[in-house]
Amino acid sequence: MPTLATYQKPEEAWIVAGYLCSMGIEAVVCHDPAYGGVLLGAMESPHRVDVPENQLEQAATLLAQRPVESIHPETPPEAPLDSAWLHRFLRFILVYDAVCWLVVPLYGHLFAPEPPQPVSDFLASLTLSDSLWRLSYAGYWPLLVTGFLSNILCLFYIPLGRSLFSITMVWSIIALLGPPPVICSPFFGFFASIQNTLASIALGLMYWSPLRDRFTSRAARVRIAK
Question: Which of 104, 128, 168, 193 has CB 3.0 to 4.6 Å from 147, enough for a Cys bridge?
Fold first, then answer.
């Protein structure tokens, strides 16, 4: 039987043959590797559809009229990342961080254990620099106020809040170099470690997640819309 068409992929040949058979054409699929030999890196199509000679013209007309369809199922579009749970998670972190900024001074002034004087003297001797200690002491209350305020502003996705949040994290790390070592309870240390971990996650969400677009200033949003 004469060949009507050749194909690289067997599924393409079978789909065409099935279509022609449904239209009354006695089409068959043949696989002949020698038919598609490799010549200087060019490979012919080894799968062919053959039809009887008396139906060749009719089959060619039907094949030309057949709508071209992809043999592969369409890949469903990726669903947009739902940022609702990120929003709730960020709000939880910000509320927790704001509470910690309020509890830290309260705990330090009312509930922190007072070590014996020899222990206090020894801890003071471990201070890296008196200048750093004085600088950290002078910036203690401004740091607390800025940390609390940054969380409140970030709750409403105000761009200034994100900037203050970043500054507060760097500021708090530098401030740790000033005071001497302190003695704290395991309970306090645990929640302080959780605060530091969650604050790092919040910073990542505000700069490298879909939530970063919410911190775009109103003027920038207008320019983007234009």
Answer: 168
In this structure, the strands spanning 38-39 and 28-31 are unpaired
Number of neighbours of residue 4 by Cβ within 10 angstroms = 21
**223: part of which helix (H) or strand (E)?**
helix 218-225
Question: Which among 30, 65, 24 has a CA at the least distance from the CA of 50?
Answer: 30
Tokens of 5: 């068409």
Write the CA distances from 188 to 85, 148, 178, integer angstroms.
Answer: 29, 18, 20
Do residues 15 and 71 make contact, with C-beta atoms less than 8 angstroms apart?
Answer: yes
Q: What are the backbone dihedrals phi and psi of residue 153, each rounded to the nearest 5 degrees, phi first?
A: -65, -35
- Contacts of residues 156-160 at CB distance under 8 Å and 24 or more positions apart, as own/partner, are 157/211, 157/214, 157/215, 158/215, 159/215, 159/216, 159/217
pLDDT in tens, 96-153: 999 999 887 777 666 666 778 888 888 888 888 888 888 888 998 999 999 999 999 9
98 vs 147: CA distance, rounded Å:
7
Residue 124 tokens, joined: 């003071």
Q: Distance between CA 226 and CA 73 in Å, rounded?
A: 37
pLDDT in tens, 62-96: 777 776 554 444 544 544 455 788 899 999 999 99
* Residues contacting residue 32 through CB under 8 Å, at least 6 positions apart: 46, 48
